[in-house]
Amino acid sequence: MHFTINGQSHDIEVDVRTSLLDLCREHLGLTGSKKGCDHGQCGACTMLVNGRRVNSCLTLAVMHQDDEITTIEGLGQPGNLHPMQDAFVRHDGFQCGYCTPGQICSAVGMLDEVKKGWPSHVTEDLSQAELTVEEISERMSGNLCRCAAYPNIVDAIREVAGQGDRNPNEDVGREVAA
């Protein structure tokens, strides 16, 4: 089978019953996306397929041979982080970090949905420009965090959406180093 993952082509033989998550983790060494519940309930395995959020534990790899697949590794790397990764770090949007790759991929996909004008269950006015805490919470409800870092996750997402403040403590380490 042929796959394009994080912009790289891969020709690989795998069982047709292999999930997209297992293809990436077990066959390609892309272990950033996590296997949490393996039932599509926690969102730790969220990847982007053609820019849309997908629970990779629930979808077969064979279904995505002609798709553009992006894992957390494809969003950014140390020294060249995606803006969402950077915001999560600055806002301390993680504690144990297990759900973080799925949270970040989901947040990136969610902001694209907002740009396209897709409503959520709590959207009252599609012309409303503000991405409220309630709106973000609803849109991110498929991604669970056992550590309950939700306020910081929401702050990071609001910042990247241009509707929140940068973390006021972000320069503390730089000031000490200077």
From TrEMBL:
Q: Annotated Gene Ontology MF terms?
A: 2 iron, 2 sulfur cluster binding; metal ion binding; oxidoreductase activity, acting on the aldehyde or oxo group of donors
Keyword Iron-sulfur in annotation:
yes
Q: Which SUPFAM superfamilies does the protein's record reference? A: 2Fe-2S ferredoxin-like (SSF54292), CO dehydrogenase ISP C-domain like (SSF47741)
What are the record keywords, sorted?
2Fe-2S, Iron, Iron-sulfur, Metal-binding, Oxidoreductase
- What region holds the 2Fe-2S ferredoxin-type domain? 1-75
Please name the InterPro entries in this protein's record.
Answer: 2Fe-2S-bd, 2Fe-2S-bd_dom_sf, 2Fe-2S_ferredoxin-like_sf, 2Fe-2S_ferredoxin-type, 2Fe2S_fd_BS, Aldehyde_Oxdr_Iron-Sulfur, Beta-grasp_dom_sf
Q: Does the keyword ATP-binding apply?
A: no
Q: Name the PROSITE patterns on file.
A: 2FE2S_FER_1 (PS00197), 2FE2S_FER_2 (PS51085)
Q: Which domain of life is it from?
A: Bacteria
Q: Which organism is it from?
A: Sphingomonas paucimobilis NBRC 13935
Instruction: Return the protein name.
Output: PaoA protein
